[in-house]
Amino acid sequence: MEWFRIPQQKVSAYIGIFLSAYLIYLGLSINANDNHWLNRLDFLFYDTRFNASLVLEEKDLFFSFESDTVNGQQGSDIAEHKVVILDIDEKSLAEEGRWPWSRHKLAQLVSELAEVGAIVVAFDVVFSEPERNPVNEVNQHLANHNIDWKIPRRWREIADGDKNFARHISDMDVVLGYFFQDEVSIRVGELPKPAFVLSAEQRSSLVSIAKPGYAANLNDLQQSAAGAGFVSTFADADGVIRRSPLVIRHGDGLYPSLSLAAVMSYLFVNDIQLSTEPVGDVEVITSIMAGGQGARTDVNGRVIIPFRGKQHSFPYISVTDVLKKKADLSLLEGAIVLVGTSAIGLSDLRATPVGTQYPGVEVHANIIQSLLSGEFPYRPEWEAGLTLSILIFLGALLSLWLPKLGPISAVALSSLTLMFVVSGNFYLWHAHKLDLPIASTCLLILVLTLLNLAYGYLRENASKRLLKGMFNQYVPQAHIDRMVEDPDAYQFTGESKELTVLFADIRSFTTISEHLSAAELKAMLNQYFTPITKIIFDHEGTIDKYVGDMVMAFWGAPLDDENHAQNGILSAIEMQKATLELSNEFVARGLPEIKIGVGLNSGIMNVGDMGSSYRRAYTVLGDAVNLGSRLESITKFYGADILVGERTAELCPDIAFSFIDRIQVKGKDEPIAVYKPLGLKRDISTQQVEEMERFDKAYECYKQQAWDDAIQKFYALKASDADNLLYQIYIDRIKDLREQELAQDWDGVFRHTSK
User: Fold this and answer.
1) What are phi and psi of 132, to 5 degrees?
2) pLDDT tens figures, 561-586
3) Quick check: pTM over 0.70?
4) Which residues are CB-neighbours of 602 under 8 A, at least 6 positions away?
5) What is the C-alpha separation between 561 and 236, in angstroms, rounded?
6) Separation CA 30–CA 41 (nearest Å)
7) Which of 226, 280, 398, 753 has CB atoms 3.0–4.6 Å from 448's, for a disulfide?
8) pLDDT, tens digit, 9 for 90 and up, residues 433-458
């Protein structure tokens, strides 16, 4: 116990030096690990700094160019290069029909754009599958009925949407999008020519993002297009998109992003130039040029996305307004036109530093604008040395100086130091576009300051208030009372554990909302969410969030729940019953009926208090959560009211499930079995059991490619239950598959290509 005799100042100094050394070690060792908590903290600082800089730039522009505004954009920003977004928005879907649209309609759109003088049209859309030709289908139908007559070939050519689309895109500079995949077996469509062919030496030494598979466009479309670029996005560890690769390696070539490909077409260039530097035994990319325009990149060829502001910082025009010539089409003259979507149902909304529901097409617009202007923020090569020097200097200074000061003086000194560091970092970003990490420096200052202050003041009461404030919106009051009794048993920081997540969404909500006033819609949603929330609380669930007409909940946190999967499924079944009762009430009052689709999945998830310095939430993240959302989105496809993942079904031995399909959802490599819960086994009828057994036999024939037996069994199932969409799905699928040459290892997995 001799260490008690050491003066408090020396103890604080020793601990401060140790913590400084530890933070320096962390700063040097986490560069390759984006998922490290210190890097995640830097992401939050980055987002805050980015948005603060945008606010300052908007004020500067307001005072400097107050009278020079075009469509909400500063005239000086858009005068040299016009970038316009054609939006497949909710309005377009309502007026033109659900997506995907006919290629004839897209051909008409390209024709309109060519007529008004658009220079380049880039589609943030992939056309990897041929469009059905109605003439071919009629001919097949006639042949199936032994009618010896075929519709003339000329008619078939006229009705061919792909050829019509190809003819129109060959008339102007059209750039198509495609996806790169991690799975080498996925190679769909035709890739364009690479923008850069690697030399023999570069093939083994150049560092870059490489992808072996791809989902590209139809051959005819690609050959008719002026170019193509990948639309694959790569989020940081927290799910936010801050950086984007300009090139990805496939084989011996580097292929451009959609943004870079659009700029190349705009500048009439077919290839790019790389600037590289040797680092040890490898070669890294430092910048990419095309036609004299370019950007500094990181070692993987990624640029920091220079967002100009929140969504709609670029001119948006609804696609339907172009097709019907209702828009001011003069905006499109001489412009680079990006065709993409902001509609929620088409799932191209991304989390970015400037918004969590940011259209992916506008990410490309920001990169295009900056490629043409040459203004990209970047992280300099000497950043690591500067950060290390700052940490060493401040760590030594504060560790030795703070223990000598009183609490007020210590806080004042630390505050001034922190303000100097933050303001300097902000200045370098705002004035010189230098991205320098700051989390470790700020954390060092804060930790050393807290080390010299008193701990524990009102700690217990503060913990109780924090628990109540954090969870009273998410969990039942009984949960909160138990948590307050033992607050140390629960943590806000992220942890990984097996949970069950639920997504419930009102079907055709856009259509319903169009027939109601804002007040009626609000009252309707409130009346719907109240019993739904009560059901979730009654089954020990935690509300994650409400997003429009969607509710997200999970089981197993903050309180442990061994039966989290079963409680989630029973909640879903009760929610369907409650929704049916509410729907009957709504119809009786002259309101639209409502139906919901529910998806559940169980697995390892990250749960905790997450967000930014402006807003936080207790939520779950992870692949298992994303899969739950995907399951909800395909309930309508299968005509099922509830779908659950394979792991959820495994955890519920007391519940009966009907097997639906074995699928691979978009963005996932591993196939999973999908089930529909029927209820507790003790409540299942003999007829339901027999139908499940008949379906299992039909599916086994389908899996063994015994097409005749399989389709016969599915027709028999459909005859006994004509309203069951699932049987018709398999009948249609078998008709398509039996015409194809399947791989030897075909396992019956159906791949969903949409989210």
Assistant:
1) -65, 135
2) 899 999 999 999 999 999 999 999 98
3) no
4) 498, 499, 500, 501, 564, 565, 568, 624, 645, 647, 648, 651
5) 31
6) 12
7) 398
8) 898 888 888 888 888 888 777 533 33
